[in-house]
Amino acid sequence: MLSNIWDQTANLTLIVILLRTLPPILLGALGGLMTDRAGVINIGIEGLMLVSAFVSIAVGSATGNWFLGVAGGTMASMLVSYGMAFFSLKMKVDIIIAGFVVNIFGAGITVVLMSIFYNSHGSYMPSVPVKIPNVVIPFLENIPVIGKLLSGHNLMVWISFLAVVFCFFLLYRTPYGAHLRATGEEPSAARSLGINVNRIQYSAIIWSGFFSGLAGAYLSMGMTSMFVRDMTAGTGFLALAVVIFGNRHPFGILAGSSVFALASALTMIIETTPGNVIPTQFIKMVPYVVTIVALVIYAIRKNRKATLAS
């Protein structure tokens, strides 16, 4: 098994699988980052991703256009996140409870709609698959190593990298980002400076819906060409752990997401290794064990810094 992992590392297959599994974790974590920095924790990312995954493939298969599918799924996610913001900020429902409701809503409404429109309770695969395209770079494609590293990846892989740069610019190079961070650090102080805290938090939750929507669209129209009940499989919760592990910074989140994507890639390789005797249930634990280890390391580092500071 170790020789198989080494072979797939040497021929860059491990990196290709890592890049394939990275976007949903990274985009979901960026969604969590936007709300976290605004002082409103969105634990409903899992539900938002599910809603987007279903609407994306439904719209995509109905129109035959992947872009409309992604746009439809992302808009649906943003609409649900707006509802979440309304109930938490306007109606004063606890944001954690609102997040739980969104997760339950996402898991339930997708199954109901799948049953109504496609007469299925477990999965839906369009007769004519509609996928987010891969990006092949002609002049790099045939270059050894570089071609495999940079060409042939799904468009959403590149969008997720651009999203990291966009979030960094938005948070640290714009007045809006300064207002958002000030709101998250000390709302009362931000309010005294004339910042509309309520509007900033509204926008942060909707940004969270936008990035979660892209993540969900990739699950159903990038990684696969189908929707499967509860197909997020905890990715939204992993994304929340990445926000903490990444030290609440876009580039830290990129590094943290890569660690979790690597764990997922290793899981896939071990599962497909010929003669593997390790139980599947045990292998599937790997990403979640990595989550626990990462959070423990983060807690130790944080306590050590606090000790040194005191």
Description of the molecule:
This protein is an all-alpha fold. It has 15 helices and four strands. The chain has helices spanning 2-10, 13-37, 45-63, 66-90, 95-118, 138-141, 146-150, 155-172, 175-185, 187-192, 197-223, 235-245, 250-271, 280-283, 286-309, and strands at 123-124, 134-135, 153-154, 227-228. The strands form two sheets. It has a two-stranded antiparallel ribbon. A two-stranded antiparallel ribbon has the order 2-3. It is globular, with a radius of gyration of 20 Å. The model has no long low-confidence stretch (mean pLDDT 87). The chain crosses the membrane at residues 12-33, 40-60, 66-89, 96-118, 155-172, 200-220, 226-244, 251-270, 282-300. Its main location: membrane.
Provide the descriptors you would attach to this structure in a database record.
single chain, 310 residues, mainly alpha, two-stranded antiparallel ribbon, globular, transmembrane transporter activity
Task: Describe the structure concisely.
InterPro entries: ABC_transp_permease (IPR001851). 75% of the residues lie in helices and 3% in strands.
Describe the strand arrangement of the main beta sheet, using strand numbers.
1-4
Distance between the termini: 47 Å
Using only CA atoms, what is the Rg? 20 Å
**Tally the helices: what do you get?**
15
Largest sheet: 2 strands, antiparallel
Provide the residue-averaged pLDDT: 87
- Based on helices, strands and strand pairing, what is the structural class? mainly alpha
SSE run: HHHHHEEHHEHHHHEHHHH
Helix content: over 70%
Number of strands: 4
Shape type: globular
Low-confidence stretches: none
Estimate what percentage of residues fall within beta strands.
Answer: under 5%
InterPro entries: ABC_transp_permease
Keywords: Cell membrane, Membrane, Transmembrane, Transmembrane helix
Pfam families: BPD_transp_2
GO cellular component, one term: plasma membrane
